[in-house]
Amino acid sequence: MKTMNKYSLILFATMLLFTTSCGEDFLERYPINSISKENFYKTPDDAESGLIAAYDGVQSFEYSCYIREVPDAFTDDCPVSSGDAPNMELNDFTFDATNLRIRNLFHVIYIAIGRVNVLLDGIENIDSDLFENNRKNEIIAEAKTLRAFHYFNLVRLWGNVPLVLSLKDDPFKGNTPKEEIYNAIINDLKWSIEQLPDRHETESRTRGTITKGAANIILADVYLTLGRWNEAVACANAVINSGVYNLLNNYDDLFNPNYENTEEAIFELQFSGPKEANGLASITLPPEIDRQWWKKYYLASDNLKDAFDEESDNTRLHSTIYFSRRGLHRWKTRDNGTGWFTSPQNLITYRLAYAYLVKAEALNEIGYNANGEAFNALNIIRKRVNLPEYTSTNLNNQEEFRNAVWKERRLELALEGFRWFDLLRTNRAIEVVSEFLWDGEQTLPEYKLLLPFPQEDLDVNPNLVQNPGW
Amino acid sequence: MRKIIFKKYKFKFKSKHIALLLYLSIISTSLFAQSNIINGVVRDAKDKSAIPGVNVYISNTKNGTVTDLNGRYSLNASKGDTLIFSFIGYDDEKIIVGEATTINVNLTSEFISLDDVIVIGYGQVKKKDLTTSVATVSSDKIANRPVGIISNALKGLATGVRVSSPDGSPGKEPVIRVRGITSINASNTPLVIIDGAPAGSLKDLNPENIESIQILKDASSQAIYGSRGAAGVIIVTTKQGKEGKPNVSFGYSFAMDNLIKKLDVLKRDDYLTLQNEALSNAGYPTIDPDEYPYNTDWQDETYKQGAKHNAYISISGGNDKNKYYTSIGYFKDEGIVDRSNYERLNIKINNDNQVSKRLLISSRLNISTNDWEGIKHGGGKPTGVIATAVIYPPIFPIYNEDGTYYHSPLTFLESPVAELYGSMNQGKGYNLNGTFYGELEILDYLKFRSTLSINGSYWERDYFLDPTITQWGISNNGQAYSETNFNSYYMIENRLQFNKNFKDIHNVSAVLVQSAEESKYKKLSGSATGYERGNIPYLSAGSEKTDANTYMSEQTLTSYIARISYSFKDKYLGTFNYRADGSSKFGPDNKYGYFPSASIGWRISNENFMSSFTFIYDMKLRASYGRVGKAPSSSYPWQAVYSPGYNYPLDGAIQTGYYIGGTLPNSALKWETTDQLDVGIDISLMSGKINFSADYFNKTTTDLLFKIPVPITTGFWRAWRNLPGEISNKGFEFTLNTKNINKSLRWLTDINLTLDKNKVESLAGLDPIETGLFQENIGAYTSIIMEGESLGAFYGYVTQGVDPETGKMIFKDLNNDGEISPEEDRTVIGNPNPDFYGSIGNTFRFKGLELYLLLEGSYGNDIFNATRFNLFSAYDISNMSVDALSRWQKPGDITDIPQLITNDPYKNFRASSFYIEDGSYLRIKNITLSYYLNPDWIKKIFVKSLKVYASLENIKTFSKYSGYDPEVSWAGGSGTAQGIDYFNYPQIKTVSFGVNVQF
C-alpha cells in the first residue's frame, strides 16, 4: 500500500467514525402520542378517564341514534319508506342479515361493552385506598350499570347474544341463553345500586352519569319486561321517593334545547357540538330548520298523529311532531347547532315520568285497585299535560286500565325509543305491525320479532348460531 | 513534415496530389506540429459489420468527421489527442492517438451484452455471471416518453413486473408489483433503492437523470435486502459524469392530453323517459319536463384538454480525478379536469472524486419540490367530480339565473362543476436526498466503503370546503383542514468488498455489510369551520377552530449481511447470502429475523461438449432459492396503547377519555416470510442476435401479518397475528430480444411475457374475509380472501338474466334449496389478476430516423365495475347508461337489464356477476418517431447532436371494457381490493413533441 497523503488520511479517519455500533435500545421504540399498557391504569385519574371512554361508548353517534331509530322503525309510529334504503327495509320487515343498520347497531353496543370490560380489567390493579371514599366501587358500579343497559338492549333485540363480561373471555364465545343474560343484568344492577350515590357533586354529573336512580330505573324496566311486578314497583318507588327527581311543569321543556339536565332527567346523554355532536338531531330535523331538503329520514306516522288526536292530546302532539312541508317530522330533537352534525342538544334516556308509568302498569298487574296508587301514578302523568284524569268510572277493570297505561306510554314516550320494546313485552307486536303494514291481510311471522345476527359476525365467529327463521 | 523522398519512388504528379498538397497545407496551418491523417474503419463489435454515420471527433475540439457508407473515416489528429467515436445505439469509444495512423474501432451495441454490468444489491455483477433473476430497463427505453413519473414508462418493459395506474390523475404514482401479491396487510410495494439508499420515491425523480433501473425478482437477489425485499427491489442508478469535455444537454417536450373516450350516457329525452318510468314503477311522483328545460352534457362541461411540459438541462464531464453530473429538470402536468395538476422541479448533483489513487469520495444529491392540486373523489359514494360528471341528471343547468350554482331538491348530488369549484385540495412537497460515500481501496482486491445517506421530506396539504357553492358546504358553513408532515431519515452503512481472480480459474467475491437506519415522522394538523365567505380558504379565517392534533412516530432497523460468490472457469457459478435484520416494529420476543438464500449457475456453453454448437453464443442455466421477510407498515403494531380522544362532555367541558382502540395488540408478532424458488435459462444465439430468457418462479408467503377479524363481541374489531396461512405466486417469465436486421436499416424487437397465478393456499382455519369496496346500496363487499382463490377475487351472486315474466333479476340458486341467501348462493364471480401480461416493442433505425412502437396488454383480468349500480338502477334520479334503454318493460321482454324501479325494492342490484366485466386489453402504448439531424451541418452551430421527436402514448386501446379504461383500481395499490372501478379519474391519451440538443 502506497503511503496515503494527509488529505486522504483525514478522510479515512472521518469514514471510520461512521462505523458506530448501535446501542441495545436503538431498536426499542415506543409510541409518542399515546400511553403504552405498562404505564396506564395506575392511578385513580386513569380509572376516571377510562370511565369517560365508557360514557363515550354509549353516547357515540351510532349507538345514541340507532338505539332509538332502529326499534322505532318497526313500529306504527314510523311511516313506511321513512329514511334511506337500509332503514326502509326495517319499516316493512324486508331486511335480512346483511342490513346495515342492524349490523351497525349490533357492533356499537358491543364496542360500548368493550369500553366497560377494559375499564374493569384495568381498575382491578389500582388500590382502592388511592381513591376518595368509595369512588373505586362507584366507578365500577357506573360501568356495570352501563353494561347492564347494553345487554338489556341486546337481549331484547337479538335474544341469545354472547355474554362477554371480561377481556379474558374466549373471543369466539357463542350464544348465551337469555335467562343467563338477564341474571347477569340483574346481579350487576343490584350490586351497583348499593354502591352508587343518589347524587354526584354537580347537576351535570347527576344527570349525565349513572346514579342510584339511574340504576334503579333501568332495573325497574328490566323487571317490567320480565313480568316481575313487585320488584318493578319497588324500584320505581325508589326513584320516585329519592327526592332527586321531579316532573317538569311544562312537558315541552323536556325537549327544549335551552333546558339541559333538568330535574326530571334520570339519565341524560350529554352532547356539546360540534366535537361531541348529537347526530340524531341532524338526521331527524325538519328541512325548514336545517335546509337539507334532500333528507328523507325518520318521519313520524299519521297513525301516531291520529293517536294524539283521538286523545285530544295537543300538548304532547306539538312537542312530538313538527308539521313540515315534507311530512310529519320528529320534533323531540330540535337544535341544529351551527350546521350538519353540530347539534349540542342532550338526549334524555330515562326520565321520572317513566317511573310513574312503570309503577302504574306493575301495580295494576299485581291486582286492579280502583282509584288506588296505580291511578294516582297514571294521573300524575296526565295532569301534567292537561288531560282529564282517569277514575274507576272510565277504567273499571284490570284490562281497561292496562290498555290505558299502554296508550299513555305510547303518547308520553313517543319517539323516545320505547314503543317497540313495549309491543314486544306485551305480546302485541305481531298484531299491531300486521295491522299497520298490511291492514291485517298479512301476518308478521313470529321469527321476525328477533333480529338476525349480522352476516359478517356469523362469518367471523363459527360458534355464533343465527336466530331461527333467518 | 517529413521530406518526401522522390528518389525512391517513381512519383507522378497528378491532380489529386495537388489537391492533397493543398489540403494538407491548409490543414497544417491550424494543426499542431505533429498532426497526422488518422483513418480507419468503424465496425459493430458483435458481427463486425461496418457502421456508416459514426461521429468521429477529437476530444476538446470541434474537429471531427463522419464515417462513410463503408464505415471509413479520415481525420487529422496529433499524437496524444483523444479520438471519440460515437453513434446512437452504441457505447462511445475513446482512443488516444499514438504512433499508428490507422485506428480501427469496434463499437459495442447498447443492446445488453454479456459483459454489461448489472447492478445487484450491494454490488455489481456481469450479466454473464448472474445467477439470479434481474430485469433491466435501460435509460433509452424510458427517455423521451411523455410520462413525468418514471414508473409510468416501465409498463410492460420487464417480465414479472406489473405496473398499473389506478387512475389518471396528474402526479399519481402507479402501483408496481413484482411477481404477484404476497401480503394481505403488509405492503406489496417493492423496496426502491436510489443510488444505494432505500429512501426517496420514484415519483420525485427526473427520468432524464436515470442511467438504469434494475428490478430484483428472485429470493437470491432480494434476500440481501432481507426484511424489506419480499415484494421485490427496484434499484435505480442515476447518471454519473464521464471523463471528457463538458457535455451540455438540453431537452424540451410538450404534450397534449385528452380523455380516451367518453361514457355513453342518456341525453335529456331518454333520461326523462327512463327516470319517470322508474319513479312511477315505485309509486313516486314523476319529474315534470317543463320545470327543467335543459340538456347539459356534464362530461363536456367537466373535461378539457390537458397538457404536459418537460424541460431539462444537464451538464456532465470530468477528468480522471473528478467527474460530475449536474442537472435541473422541470415537469408540469395539467390534467384533463380543471384544478387537477402536478408540477415538479428537480435538481441533481452527482460527483465522483478520486481524492487519491486509492480513495474515492462520491456524492449523489437530489433535491425535488412538487406542487399539486387534486379534485374530490366520493370514496364509496357517487359524489365527487368524476362520478357526477357521469351521472348528474342532464336536465339541470350549471347556474341559476343569478349566477349562483344550481342545486336540486330532488337529489343529494351536486353538479360536477359545483363539486369541482366547491372544494379545494392542494399541497406541496420538498425532498432532499443525499448519499455520500467514501471508498478506500485497501488492496487491489479489497475495498472498504462507508456510506451516509440522509433524507428529509416535508409535505403539506390544505383542504377547503367553500361555504357558498355546494349544499354540503353551505350547511356546514365551510370547513378547512390543513396538515404538515415531516419525515427525516438517515442510514449509515459500512461495506467490505473482496474480489479476487485466481489464475483465471477461480473467481471469488465476497461482501460484508453492517448498516443502521432510523426514521422519524411528525404530523401537525388542524381544522376549522364557521366561514361566511370562501375568499380566504385557510384555517385563519374560520370563526371556530374545531381540532388541532399532532402525531409522531419513529422506527429503526439494524442489519448484518454477508454474501460470497464463487465461479470456476466461468462455467460453474454459485452465490450464498445471509442477512439478519432487527426492527423496532417487533416486540422483544421476535425482534430479529434471519434470511438466507443461495443460487447456482451453469454456463453450459462453455462446456467442451457444447463447442460444436457454434450458433449457441452463450447458454446458462441458473437456479436460486431463499427467504425474504416483511414487516408491517405501522410503527408500533405489537404494543397495547391507550390513546385519548374518547370524550364525553360534563360540567360544561369536554372530559378526555382514554381507550385501547379497535385492535388487540400482540407482543409475539414477528416477520412475515416469503420463500422463493427460481429456475431460469439464458440463451444467446448467433453472436448475440437472438437473446432469450425464461424463468419459472414459485414463491410462498407464510406467517402472514394479519389483523384477523375478531368477533365484535370482544369489543374489538381485529387483532394482529402472524397467520400460519399461505399465499402462493407461481409463474413463468419469457423475454426475447432479437436484432432482426442490422444493416443500414436496423430493426430490433423486444418481447416480454409473464404468466403468473396467485392463490390463497390456506387461511389457517379462518373463514373467508370480505374486502374491497363496500357499497351501501349493493349491501356487500366486492371482493373476498378465500382459500383456493386468488387474493382479491370478486364475490357475489350469479345472475342469469332477467325473468321475462316479472322483470326481476334472476339469481342462480347454487345449492338448489329454493332460496337465494347470502351464505349459500354467493360464490367467486371473477378474478382481477391477469392470466398473462406483457409487451412487444419494435425499434427501427434508418440513417438518422428512429421509430419505436410498443404494444402492451393484459389478458384474463376481470373488473368489478361498481359504477353499473348507478348507471342502471335509477338510484336517486341519476343519469344512466344508454344501455339502460334495453331495460325490461313488459312481460315477454328478453333482456339483461331489470325493470327500472326507484330504490330497487327487489334488490336486483346486489353484488353479483352483473358487475363483472372482462378487463383484458391490448394497447398501442407508445409510438415514437425521432429524427437525429445530420451531424455535419449542425456542427456549424456548435451542436454535437440534435434530435426532434413526436410521441403518441395510449393512442389506441382494444378492450371490451365499458368503463373509461380497463386499467383502473378504486383502491389504489391494495392487494386485496384490486380491479374495482368506481368513478376513478380516467386515463389519458397523449400526443407530444420534443427536442433534445447536446452541445
Textual characterization of the structure:
- The complex is a heterodimer of chains A (470) and B (999).
- With 470 residues, chain A is mainly α.
- In chain A, 51% of the residues lie in helices and 4% in strands.
- Chain A contains 20 helices and five strands.
- Chain A starts with 5 loop residues before the first helix and ends in a 10-residue tail after the last helix.
- Helix content of chain B is 8%, strand content 49%.
- Chain B is built from eleven helices and 51 strands.
- In chain B, a hairpin with a 7-residue loop joins strand 39 (780-785) and strand 40 (793-796).
- At the A-B interface, helix 1, strand 1, helix 2, helix 4 and helix 5 of A face strand 21, strand 22, helix 9, strand 24 and strand 25 of B.
- Strand 1 (35-36) of chain A pairs antiparallel with strand 29 of chain B.
Describe how the helices and strands are arranged.
The complex is a heterodimer of chains A (470) and B (999).
Chain A: H1 6-17, E1 35-36, H2 44-59, H3 61-73, H4 85-91, H5 100-123, H6 135-158, H7 178-195, H8 203-208, H9 212-226, H10 229-240, E2 265-269, H11 279-284, H12 287-290, H13 302-310, H14 314-320, E3 321-324, E4 327-330, E5 347-351, H15 352-366, H16 373-384, H17 398-412, H18 419-425, H19 429-438, H20 455-460
Antiparallel strand pairs in A: 2-5, 3-4
Chain B: H1 15-30, E1 35-44, E2 55-58, E3 64-66, E4 72-78, E5 82-86, E6 93-96, E7 105-107, E8 117-120, E9 123-126, E10 134-138, H2 139-142, H3 150-153, E11 161-164, E12 175-178, E13 191-194, E14 210-216, H4 219-222, E15 233-238, E16 244-259, H5 268-281, H6 298-302, E17 306-318, E18 322-334, E19 341-354, E20 359-373, H7 385-391, H8 416-422, E21 423-443, E22 446-465, H9 471-476, E23 479-502, E24 506-529, E25 544-568, E26 572-583, E27 592-603, E28 616-630, E29 641-644, E30 648-650, E31 653-655, E32 658-659, E33 663-664, E34 672-685, E35 690-709, E36 718-742, E37 745-762, E38 769-775, E39 780-785, E40 793-796, E41 799-802, E42 809-811, E43 827-830, E44 836-846, E45 849-859, E46 862-865, H10 867-872, E47 916-918, E48 921-932, H11 935-939, E49 945-959, E50 980-981, E51 988-998
Helix pairs in contact in B: 7-8
